[in-house]
Design brief:
The protein is 44% helix and 13% strand. The chain is an alpha+beta fold. The protein has a four-stranded antiparallel beta sheet. Strand 4 and strand 5 form a beta hairpin. 22% of the residues are buried.
């Protein structure tokens, strides 16, 4: 893809905000790190806000190797006045990236165990619903096509009858997400258990 974009003078904006949340057995490779071609055309966006829960501090990174592109980015973020950060943001970013590896490892382990719980419970109690393999992030996808419902129908049913709110995949792609529900695993395990109970009761 990088070679095609470079050939047609297209910049790639790579949103890598979940880059630290890599599940066991997998490895994350930044788009810009694949080769020099990718590096030269990439604008990488990331932030500690997802992995370290610092969204309220409004701190993020824009990484770009091309000087002229950096100049244009700087001009735009100044025009729209989104270039300034509050004094706590940089401190939190440095603490997250330099001093929080042990905490992040614990977080990833907790999310992974939540994923395993979701996969096991649905395999046992709602076997027609397939949990997609999780490689990264705290968001799991469930294929419900064998249940005979669209994602929108299932999400509405879960909310109105089960009182559990899941995201319909159509929010992220009208066709590709038609039969997928998104489950947020970044929650306490007892909350997840209750949500799974309601999913099984409502869709089973």
């Amino acid at each position: 893809m990088g070679e095609i974009c470079a050939r047609h003078h297209v910049r790639v904006i790579s949103d890598e905000i979940h880059c630290e949340l890599v599940m066991p057995g997998h490895r994350f490779t930044p788009f810009a790190a694949v080769n020099e071609t990718n590096r030269d055309i990439a604008v990488t966006l990331n932030s500690p806000s997802k992995s370290f829960n610092t969204a309220g501090l409004q701190i993020a990174n824009i990484i770009c190797s091309d000087g002229e592109t950096r100049r244009r980015i700087d001009r735009v973020i100044n025009i729209y006045e989104v270039c300034d950060v509050n004094p706590f943001g940089p401190v939190a970013l440095k603490a997250a990236y330099n001093d929080s590896e042990e905490w992040l490892d614990g977080l990833i382990g907790y999310i992974w165990d939540n994923y395993r719980l979701l996969r096991q419970r649905l395999a046992e109690q709602l076997p027609k619903a397939e949990v997609v393999r999780l490689e990264g992030t705290y968001l799991a996808w469930v294929n419900i096509e064998p249940l005979g419902l669209t994602a929108d129908e299932a999400a509405d049913k879960l909310l109105s009858e089960g009182k559990v709110c899941l995201s319909s995949g159509t929010q992220y792609g009208e066709h590709a997400g038609k039969h997928y529900l998104r489950v947020n695993l970044a929650c306490r395990r007892d909350v997840l258990r209750q949500a799974i109970d309601r999913m099984v009761e409502t869709l089973g």
